[in-house]
Amino acid sequence: RLREETSSEMGVISMSDRKEEAIQRARILVIDDNEYSVRMMKEIYAETYDITLEPNMEEAQVLLRGGDYDLAVISLDSSNYDPLRLCSKIRSLEETRQLPILTLVDESDKDKLIKGMEIGVNDYVMRPIDANELIVRTRTQILRKQYQDRLRHNFHRSMELAVTDSLTGLYNRRYMSNHLDAILQRAKLDYKPVCVMILDIDFFKRVNDTHGHHVGDEVIKEFSLRIGASVRGIDLACRYGGEEFVVVMPDTNLSVASTVSERLRRQISEVPFSVSKGTLELNLTCSIGVTVSGESESSDSLLKRADKALYKAKRDGRNRVVV
Ligand code: GH3
Ligand code: MG
Ligand code: MG
Ligand code: MG
């Protein structure tokens, strides 16, 4: 019984994100060596934000790379460093590309500001600094940054939900089906075989009936971990149904795939499943069907043949691999 990933579930996630964010103060890195403005920012930021002061440009770069800042405030009129170089560094590094930059600008430095805007500075405050203006411009940049972070995060989460199974974290059936055809086409161009393995836990109903659905779920999770541990990075492991799994192995011949399957089968049957916080040990077995792609074979027919092999493994007495 695979849980359906619905859009309402995605809605729940975005709400919990908002909660998380409410308790997290925004973080500002100030790169300025002007004593007067630094003191001013300390005063007006401290209430609302976590503020870090770093007048040294090299140090600031280290902080930016490691820290999770929501805003960089950079003085453009420092004599100790090249602020424009710092701004372009921030824009060019993957880790800081999205970081808003607010600059503090001296009237005489307007040409620097224009260059800065070209590089990707988001906003500026002119010296002498007006506190209210600084507050408003700071808040605007931070809100925009946090809004974008939330969108990005929700986007990644929904992508994840769309392709993975929520109980096990393995790919879901739909994702696997969609990609298997592409994998087969690629393999055909490279003249490489693709193997498919289907696994089904033996007598799984008994686990549910004897110990309950929760224990059944735990077994499914542990089973998934063992599959994950026994396949390579390029293999595609998916939860195909309730307690049924498919592993797609590109660039693999049948003899290698049988060896992998046999090793996994033995590991499953020889190492008991520890569940209910270690209070219960279950001896389980699984049956495995393995097959290799033929020339120009569709994903459907490949999966069908693997399923037939699995069915034979069950019929022949379970706890075995049928190729
Ligand atoms: P066989 O050896 O023939 O495979 O026997 P089996 O008992 O494993 O039979 P079958 O594969 O047909 O049944 C699988 C059972 O798994 C049926 C269903 O109640 C249960 N199941 C499916 N999805 C889940 C799930 O997400 N959690 C739990 N706990 N049980 C599930
Ligand atoms: Mg069955
Ligand atoms: Mg079963
Ligand atoms: Mg089954």
A few lines on this structure:
This protein has 323 residues and is an alpha/beta fold. Helices cover 52% and strands 18% of the residues.
Structure description:
With 323 residues, the chain is of the alpha/beta class. The chain has 11 helices and 13 strands. Strands 6-8-9-7-12-13 form a 6-stranded mixed β-sheet, sandwiched between helices. Strands 2-1-3-4-5 form a 5-stranded parallel β-sheet, with helices on both faces. Strands 10-11 form a two-stranded antiparallel sheet. Helix 8 crosses helix 9. The radius of gyration is 28 Å and the shape is elongated. 30% of the residues are buried. Bound molecules: 3'-deoxy-guanosine-5'-triphosphate and magnesium ion (3 copies). The site of 3'-deoxy-guanosine-5'-triphosphate has 16 residues, from strand 7, helix 8 and helix 9. The site of one magnesium ion has 4 residues, from loops.
Structural class: alpha/beta
Query: Assembly state here?
Result: single chain
Number of strands: 13
Order of strands, widest sheet: 6-8-9-7-12-13
Proportion of residues in helical segments: 40-55%
